[in-house]
Amino acid sequence: MNASLPTPSGRVFRSDAPLAAAPGMLRIGTRGSALAVSQTTMVAEQIAAATGLDVGLVIVTTHGDVTRAPLSQLGGTGVFVSALRDALLAGECDLAVHSLKDLPTGACPGIVLGAVPARADARDALCARDALTLADLPEGARVGTGSPRRAAQLRSRRPDLDVHDLRGNVDTRLGRVGVDLDAVVLAAAGLDRLGRATAITERFPLTDVPAAPGQGALAIEVREADAAAEPFARALAALDDAEARATALAERALLAALEAGCAAPIGACAEVAGDALRLRAVVYRVDGSAQLSAECEVPWFADDAESESGADAESVSDADREAAARERAERMPEELGRRVAATLLAEGAADLAPLGAA
Known about the structure:
Largest sheet: 6 strands, mixed
Strand content: 15-25%
Mean pLDDT: 88
Number of strands: 14
Strand order of the largest sheet: 1-3-2-4-11-5
Number of helices: 10
Helix content: 25-40%
Structural class: alpha/beta
């Protein structure tokens, strides 16, 4: 009878000081920004509900949090990741939560991607004065963004705009609208998670304005040695979403194959459509004056694990079946990303954008 009762949810709390490991508790490393804490709290609440463990948020300050230099000069958004990874490897936390678009595409020794939760709205959002849309902004309007991709897309659609580099947290950026800027462009997911959706005056369709690879998704990293151990495996299984992982892996494989950094002027949008996983990507010239696009799809769970392995169903154990399914779930999105990247490179993407700077 007790087995049918729900697992009691653990306590979720924040720690601005180092937090020692303890039985019955998981520690999650996060940046201290309002957005990072908000999205990490959502992750922590899911873990606490699924495992019954207490979950502590360990605040880690990154170099990207204490400098106002443009991200392009700091090596892209990967500047937000290294301190969290250092804390994870040092045993100061058990898991680390990142915005997936911030993750460098190269492997990090000792750390693996443990889970990708269900993806939020991947679109970019315009936040403009007087409820204006992009088409309604006056000629020469001043628009802020810290992303070379967004800047290229804005200039492609509205060459007359005066695009300005922008740093700071979400509220700092929004606070400049109607003061020294007519509008800013931010990720819709971040605005939604912070309860700032009312500031959005237009959400750009992904068909016209593909977002950064991985935008709207979270990445939960774990030490490689702990990934299959309890209670980590149970926590990660409760978080992972197969479709979100597949679309994110496809977009990241594209970025890796193009040898492009996180801040490169590249937009990508992967989706599961029926029994297919589809990826469309666009590479922009930095000034927005030219672009290249490519699209491809691969089967999505079209074959079962048994036929994939070439074995009779009766001779395949549950463990082997699960292993084959996991291998396929990783391989197909990565193959898709490489295919689309190969097409773009064959059409001259390297002459259009600054690639080879991962």
